[in-house]
Amino acid sequence: MREDRGERAGRPGVDLAALACKVLRERGLEPDFPPAALAEANALHAAALPAGAADERDRAWCSIDNDDSRDLDQLSVAETLTGDRIRVHVAVADVHAVVARDTAIDRHARQNTTSVYTPARVFPMLPERLSTDLSSLGADEDRAAFIVSFTVAADGTLESPQIRRALVRNHAKLAYRAVGAWLEHQAPAPPALAAVTGLEELLRLQDVAAQRLKSRRYEHGALDLETLAAQPVLEDGSVIDLRHEPKNRAESLIEDFMIAANGVMARFLAERGVASLRRVVRAPERWDRLAALARSLGGALPPQPDARALSEFLTRRRAADPLRFPDLSLAVVKLLGRGVYVRYRSGDTQSGHFALAVREYVHSTAPNRRYPDLVTQRLVAAALDGDAAPYSDLELDALARHCTEQEDAAEKAERQLRKSAAALLLAPRVGQTFDALVTGASDKGTWVRTLVPPVEGKLMSGTRGLDVGDTLRVRLTGVDVEKGFIDFARAG
User: Which residue(s) pair with 170 in the sheet?
Assistant: First the structure.
């Protein structure tokens, strides 16, 4: 049992950026680039376009990302075809052309395998000279890219996939929040969107294609989950708020296109007999626990894993109890198990991505931020050029294990630092009471989430008789910023 820490451990003045560096090192991640990597980055130039590649700068490409994102990995555009079909084109930044294997930049990227996003500081996988400039698809810049094209039929079927390399130009740098509000008819078009003639109509077309893809995946059992990951808001280095923004239609649009593009990349490599790194979420081994959870909420699941049945149960629960749905989603995520990378060669038996209801899936659309995506690019480029695969099966096996471990380490570091930021915000409020929900109850302890602000912590006393989903009043008894601990007691 943790001690009641009171206000001492949560005293003001904790340097979250320094704490982030410490936590990353403890997790086996390198927070800073070695001098050799920075020197290499400063000497680089933008990637040259491969011989024979097309010039597609005149397409109405646009990016949609977070408001403050500068490491832009993808652009998209759509066009109408006959028969109510929509042709979608996704451009992915050609990072492999500027990051050669076994350079100092590549060695650092391979060590961390991912960018790490913490409240006080972002730790990019690649130096900013690349990720926010030379290999970013920034506004009004000419950049080399891989183009993934596919046709979306009226029923959501994906047809005529194609991969090529081309020169592209981002005509509008857009943000999820503003585009989402516009797509949902809650706000006018953002200025960057309205400034490009015809782009509003083309973006609505992208949304139609994305909705078709989503509906098709849900028919096959894709899971619609909603977890609460409140993001700390900092001002002059101090945490002033925690903000949760539900996923909007613009985020869903990009998510649906990326899932489709990743499937096209996976099939492209498999059809050419090229081994790849696939992202897998296997059928849940703890399906019996999921079935028991469903029964406790008045639902029913079949004896064997069935993604469609689980999806339908979740849809009903979202409608019946939206307040508690994020906590149900979190419980389902934990019972599904984590995603892993595996080396895949055509003919291998593997279970695909259970939560997305797809069988063929690689990570390929965020090469500035994830190392497996850069590996996929190198494999695809070699296949397009008719060259031998740049990685052996043994190398891919080792990369699959390492990338899985490091991505897990990065996720744990991010989660711990979000909790540290929440602890810092709540430190002056020790002794105050909050409305809360029970999110976990087992022999390991009882956990609660306060409603405002949305913070999860451990209930240190007054746990008797409580179960998941119960509402109660809790009193904040102490925090530990460095460890990210937040402790409550049952009020009254």
Answer: 139
Cα 25 to Cα 28: distance, rounded to the nearest angstrom = 5
Q: What is the C-alpha to C-alpha distance for residues 402 and 305, in angstroms, rounded to an integer?
A: 28
Q: What integer pLDDT is reported at residue 9 of this predicted model?
A: 39
The answer to whether residue 473 is domain-embedded is: yes
- 176 and 271 housed in the same domain: yes
Q: Look at residue 341 and tell me if it is in a domain.
A: no
pTM for the model: 0.90
Give me the DSSP letters along 391-455.
Answer: S-HHHHHHHHHHHHHHHHHHHHHHHHHHHHHHHHHHGGGTT-EEEEEEEEEETTEEEEEESSS--
Cα–Cα distance, 125 to 115 (Å, whole number)? 4
In-domain check, residue 329: yes
* pLDDT tens column, 285-341: 788 888 988 998 899 999 998 888 999 999 999 899 888 888 888 888 878 878 899
The parts of the chain modelled with pLDDT lower than 70 are 1-13, 350-351
Q: Which is nearest to 484 in space by CA: 405, 407, 425, 444?
A: 425
Whether 20 is covered by a domain: the verdict is no
For 208, the domain range is 33-275
Name which of 141, 119, 113 is nearest 19 in CA terms.
119
Q: Is-contact 173 139, C-beta < 8 A?
A: yes
pLDDT for position 350: 67
Structural domains of the chain, count = 3
- pLDDT score recorded for residue 10: 38
**Same-domain pairing of 260 and 307:** no
